[in-house]
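Researcher: Here's a chain I'd like modeled. Treat it as a single chain, no partners, no ligands.
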Amino acid sequence: MKNVNKYLAALLVLALAAPVFTGCTDDDEYSLSSISAKPSDKFNATIQFVSRLNDGALVTSDADYTALNNYMVNTLKSREEAWLTIFDRSDNTNLSKVMEVSLNTYRWTWFAFNGLTNRTTYKGSTLFFNQPTRLVRATASGKGCYVTGFSPLMEGTRTDKDEAGTVTGTVDIAYNINFRTVRFETNEQIGAFGGENGTMNKLKRENMNMLMIGTVKNDLYGSLESAVKGTDASFNVYNIATGSAYTIFMLAQERFWDFTSVSSTSVGNGIEAYAINVMW
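Model: Modeled as a single isolated chain. Structure tokens:
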């Protein structure tokens, strides 16, 4: 009798499951294969990247500091515009003056350690952001290269439009994102970044929705593209701006982020500020 009951129970399960298997067709509009997530241009956030895009340090004189301070205090007036500002290669004897910018603009800061040349020579960038953060991590990627990551509060907007495409309103949006920055100077560093056991896979397994903006030597940009696509074809590398020696790039998974546009402002003394617009 017990075996009969088991047999009848099995038949009941199959009967209930039958509509599930027979109710779908190849033309099902809502099949999983037809669902694709991608960024929308109604969302926008701007990241400021300040750099010379050469092999030199950002601040070499008091005049450079004055120009940078004026840009941060007077040009970037809203907190939304300056929720994340990066001073590329702000590593030199005037680092204390760069720190004064945070006091003048009421911003939190962190030094993103990009690389170590020897015991006394290092390279890195200063990150300015609006809200405090509990954790900043550096992950090695080859000799003398470190990917710095943290979770700042992104401040952006959502633009609503009607069916005719007319803007009906703009809504402020803020939430924490997984941001990364790095400086690639050698093929060995890029090789360590890509590949099955490389830094990129390690970071994406922690946070697939990471957004990375950094610099790479001009002649290594193609190698970076190949390394990223060879590791995961769903990740894109964008050429944001190319200078005399380095290129600003953006890296992100195609479902989460997309590059929209970039504009540049001359800060003075050969320093440029790039306003990088992204959507999600």
